[in-house]
Amino acid sequence: MEKAKDMYQRKIRIPDDIKRAIEVNGEQQSRQFNTEVIYQLRKAYGLVGNRSVEA
User: Are 7 and 45 a contacting pair, CB within 8 Å?
Assistant: First the structure.
């Protein structure tokens, strides 16, 4: 729980070229990107397969 709270509170800096690519490719691509980032973060913290995440 503490890891998730800490991860949520941290801010990550997304490079400008990636921001521009997201804007150009539209909403669908940004949703796909966000989904992939969330998946990779869950994978990195060992949360993949654990659907019961506390709020």
Answer: yes
